[in-house]
Design a protein that fits this description.
The structure is a single chain. By secondary structure, this protein is of the alpha+beta class. The chain has one domain. 32% of the residues lie in helices and 14% in strands. It has a 6-stranded antiparallel beta sheet with strand order 1-2-3-4-5-6. A hairpin with a 4-residue loop joins strand 5 and strand 6. The longest helix is centred in the first third of the chain and has 24 residues. The chain starts with 8 loop residues before the first helix and ends with a helix.
Length: 223
Amino acid sequence: MKNFKAFTLTELMVAIAVIGILCAIVLPGLLNNNPNQNRMMMKKAYTVFLDITHDLINDSENYPVIYGLCPDNGDGGYIGFDCAEADSKFPYLFSKRLSTKNERIPDENTIKTDATYSKSGNANCNGVGSSCYYLTTDDNMSWAFEKSVLTKGSYTDSILIGVDVNGSKKPNCYEGSNSDNCKNRSDNFDQFRMKLYANGTVKIHSDDKWAMESIQVNSSLTE
């Protein structure tokens, strides 16, 4: 008569416990750190930004243009987005085109002074510097705008915009970041940065190679 061997109850319980531990370790990373999802959201954010900046720079009520130059006191004129006296003008106008989780911004001065929209610290500004204007949209993207005014008449000045495509979810990393949880990462970033120039040109930050690849923009146009 053959003797059939079987697992004991203790062995089964140990096996189930090991499987549970492995699932607890692996699943959060798979669910919250999906590279395909990050790529898709980067492309969406880039497209949205291009569309809105195109609308704004061509809206004569927001950025009035006379023969290609904004009116001034005769000192060379303005071009496009440098037709602004305050660094809060562009993020305020941009926010009006988005569906944000924050309460509706009633005026340009509010985004400039309210702590909900005005942040400090590079970690809070998606890599655009130590001070920024900050917006969160209904799709959980966060947008950080460098507090900077373009020099009148300059074609080379730019404003840096940092996007976190999944909001507060980790890893909260952009390419080139020196933070401990980011500096050894080579892919699957959830943040990237764009430069907005006075004439409306938008370029991906030259360090954000993974974002360039994700958005599938010709690198010669974005570096």
